[in-house]
Design goal:
54% helix, mainly alpha
Length: 112
């Protein structure tokens, strides 16, 4: 398990880049996977990493597993490498936005 300082930093980074609430992410994953003919069960909607992010958002820091920490690092790396967190988001890049929303980051959501 990571030491306390590393865990604190990862927790902060994860919650900085994951700017969607668990309800917003759950809704997005269901919408993203809904189809004309079939639709997965709500708990099966979205890709595995998106579902893992949703599960992490519903946990306390003390309940995190090594697998959770790996997923959190992956999300932080993915979002920071693909999104320009310092500048204004571009509304016309729908594909990138939807890809980032799958892991809990909506680049068009106003910063607090």
């Amino acid at each position: 398990m990571a030491d306390a300082l590393e865990l604190d930093a990862l927790w902060e980074d994860f919650h900085r880049v994951v700017n969607m609430t668990s309800a917003e992410l759950a809704d997005w994953l269901r919408v993203r996977d809904s189809g004309e003919l079939t639709e997965p069960l709500p708990d099966d909607a979205g890709p595995p990493l998106g579902r893992h992010v949703l599960a992490i958002l519903q946990k306390r820091r003390t309940d995190l597993t090594e697998d959770d920490l790996r997923a959190m690092r992956e999300v932080v790396d993915t979002v920071t490498s693909r999104a320009d967190l310092e500048n204004e988001p571009k509304a016309d890049d729908t594909r990138l936005r939807h890809s980032l929303m799958t892991v809990g980051h909506d680049p068009l959501k106003p910063r607090p």
